[in-house]
Design goal:
The protein is α+β, with helices and mostly antiparallel strands. The protein contains 2 helices and 6 strands, in the order ββαββββα. A 6-stranded antiparallel sheet has the order 2-1-3-4-5-6. The longest helix is centred in the middle third of the chain and has 13 residues, at 39-51. The radius of gyration is 13 Å and the shape is globular. 32% of the residues are buried.
Length: 122
């Protein structure tokens, strides 16, 4: 999966999106923070994300999970994930022009399923 530069990421907030529709175009991720991943956990999650293959995007995009990636100085990017339609929305101050927006990912790939498991277990 195409990600912005992640080497400055020190912390990832995992968010359970309680109202998927509001997260389709909102400026932030709106939901319940369920976990904080720092250092090794954050690096492992980013490696999983980077290893998820691209796939065809389907239609629904009702994201149930999201992340906020932070450096020591502030927010880098946000991602919202819909595992039903294989859609991921990427946006934020650290995302280069042309990379923001909705893209398809292989939500049934081993890396995506591992990421979803980590979301659920915190």
């Amino acid at each position: 999966m195409l990600l912005p530069s992640c080497e400055k990421t020190e912390l990832i907030e995992v968010v359970r999106l309680t109202d998927p529709v509001v997260n389709v175009g909102s400026a932030d991720l709106i939901g319940q923070d369920v976990a904080l991943w720092a250092d090794g956990q954050a690096r492992d999650a980013l490696a999983l994300l980077a290893g998820i293959p691209d796939d065809e995007l389907h239609r629904c995009f009702l994201p149930g999970w999201g992340i906020r990636a932070h450096s020591s100085t502030g927010l880098l990017f946000r991602m919202a994930f819909c595992f039903r339609c294989h859609g991921a929305r990427l946006w934020g101050p650290g995302v280069p022009a042309g990379q923001e927006g909705l893209r398809g990912f292989a939500s049934e790939s081993p890396a995506a399923l591992d990421l979803l498991r980590r979301f659920r277990t915190g």
